[in-house]
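Exercise: predict the structure of this protein bound to zinc ion.
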Amino acid sequence: MLPEPIISLTAALAKLPGVGPRSAERLALHLVQTEMPVVQYLAETILTARERIRFCEICGALTEKSPCATCTDSRRDAALVCVVERAVDILSIEKSGSYRGKFHVLGGKISPLDGVEPDELRIAELEKRLVTEPIREIIIALGTDVEGDATSHYLAKRLARAGLKISRIGFGLPAGSGLEFADELTLDRALEGRREMI
Ligand SMILES: [Zn+2]
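Solution:
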């Protein structure tokens, strides 16, 4: 039987994504035997990151300052907005190197099975941006799985309005997966070869 603090630490670590009960216990046992300054540094780094990072009030990206650097960068094409599922997907698109527009993070995909309804995504925020910003094209860059497809079509229908082009990347993306599995060249080509939805 392990001492209570180790059991509590294991339970806390097991709540992290991708950490099963076994790895949680291994991490906890490792941490309680690690030198104090190392553990202190880890704890402080976690706290600092959590305290300083927030969501950009416009695009939903992770940032220290809201609005974020991308939203306030006047060299970026304000007529172009790339819609992604999660904040980390912005990094994938940026790494492709060719995209110079703005971003919008949805915060998920529509998935009735997982109980994710359109209302829980940042779609109303995007509609607001269509009114306040000079957006002429929306590039939907969601994964190619079933939920990505459903969400893309829902968005195209809901956002349709005169003078707005809505396109979707897809060309060459691995079928049934998210952006994180595509390399830079593939993403670059997928952006280049985007197809108009409406
Ligand atoms: Zn932003």
